[in-house]
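Hi L.,

You mentioned the student needs an example of a multi-chain input paired with its predicted structure. This one should do, with 373 residues in total across all chains.
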Amino acid sequence: MSEIIKVGMADLKTCIAPDGITTLGLGSCVGVAIRDTGGKVGGLAHVMLPDSKAIKNSQTNIAKFADTGIDELVRQMEALGASRRRMVAKIAGGATMFNYTAKADSMQVGCRNVEAVKKKLGELGIPIIAEDTGLNYGRTVVFYPETGEFQIKAVGKQVTVI
Amino acid sequence: MVKQMSELDLETVTSQYYDVLKELGNIGAGNAMTALSQMIGSKIDMRVPQVKLLEFDELGTIIGGEEQIMVGVFLGVEGDISGSMLFLLEQSSAKHLINKVMMGMGSPDDPEFTEMERSAMQEVGNIITGAYLNSLAMITNLTIYPSPPSLTVDMAGAILSVPAIEFGIYGDKILMIQSQFFDDVEIDGFFVLVPDIDSYAKILSALGMPV
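Structure written out for the whole complex:
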């Protein structure tokens, strides 16, 4: 009996196939799904901000950031026996929800999140094999590490699989 | 000297100033609802506002789940304070409200929004948010004004992630002042004021609260 594990905002979790893993209503946040192509381990991070080092306060939740979140996700997957050499990633989200320009900096956070995720995965040598990012709408994603299927649902659109 | 709120603990602030923040929400939303009632020519009621300190993953639950489709009008708050304001309605509520504003020329039974309805909705957001912020500016003697409104129809989680990200820079929780309004039948919506963390300090000290 397989189940679907839910990941909240600024959170990350791992799963073992045939279980799936999901996160709901990604806006400017980015869903980073990683799987070990030679095993059953998968994981999903709901990244909220690009860079933990750009924040002055000490932070407790490392899942929130692209850099520390992806590091931690990979670490947890390796602890479950996954091999980094065989890992591949799919990403979705990073939308600009409102075209409000006065605070251009914070409104571009979707794009900056996507860039930061790509940079971090690049550093770790994990290839991104598919993505559905940017634009101006929210996304719910479901990831199945068994097949690598990454389902994306959006309001008023057909479910797509990447 | 105003101490930066980010140096303070959000939990302490919430418990100490809960009633003050709630009263602010009450005055602001009261004015907004009056403006809305006048616009549609019928009575709108509101519930007692709530001040909420939430974990990010609890955000979706305040309005029926992350995937609940909502119509959201977003406005940036600028001037002496900064932050954002969201006017959120379920799709069918929004359609009914717009139909009233358009004096029956809308299409309340069709879930899609026409161009006309979208701009009517933005204008509604603009007017009632203006009423909310004006009353806030009056009590605090601060300059507060909204940016032009921006509208989206999307999942609640995706909409609420916008103010959440602002708070994510400082910590792992979001503090918001939420008011709920309704009429006798079709309309049921929320009004959420989310000042940036530093702006809470400015608002409270403008009201003579020791921060």
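You could point out the following to them. The radius of gyration of chain A is 15 Å. The helical segments of chain A are 66-79, 104-107, 109-124.

Best wishes,
N.
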